[in-house]
Amino acid sequence: MTDSEHSGLFLVLEGIDGTGKSTHAKRLASYFSALGREVVLSREPTDGPWGKKLRDSATLGRLEPEQELEYFLRDRKEHVEQLIKPALAEGKVVILDRYYFSTMAYQGARGFDPQEIRRRNEEFAPQPDLLFLLDIDVDIALERIGSRGDTANQFEKRDALQRCRDIFLSLKEEPFVRVISAAGALDEIAHKMIDCLNDMK
Ligand code: TYD
Fold first, then answer.
1. Secondary-structure class of domain 9-200 per CATH
2. Where are the domains of the chain?
3. Which end of the chain is less crowded, N or C, counting CB atoms within 10 A of the terminal residue's CB?
4. What pLDDT does residue 133 have?
């Protein structure tokens, strides 16, 4: 994009669990590699120390809301400084599977104000050139991740995911956001993403 501060290309994939973000992130990475571009494919939470604590909490028990939010911010600060900014400055294509919009959605669903989360992140985290928001009905997403949503715990999960989806969709008017239905075939979705990239030029 012409008004970016960097010479690289910064692409982010977001969406609730079960939308196929990691599959499409890999496909995009292959697409740009085939064009001869240097690609950095990464994800959040990262494999760094804060990201590891967050991933461990998925099995060991969820962190308190404040602490969880703090860890996501620390993880992202390291990611931005150590990987994202340097790669963009070198003209690489950076593709992220989740970024601070996931914090708006998931920690927002946990009770924090999504706009305040956005503000705190944008103090240090650059906006992507393009954000692909892979969107799908919550019941289809739950089916895909093998959860039918018919126990009390799963009702809660369904409710939380619905709040996440709503927060993600609240971003749809932003100029850098492209909402793509994740309900179709993989190839169809991949084509739509490439069309969006071509329209940027
Ligand atoms: P996910 O990409 O689903 O990891 P995996 O590939 O291991 O399944 O991300 C893990 C979870 O972290 C996911 O449920 C969303 C959550 N998350 C947040 O709550 N806040 C954030 O800022 C990020 C980046 C992720």
1. alpha beta
2. 9-200
3. C
4. 98
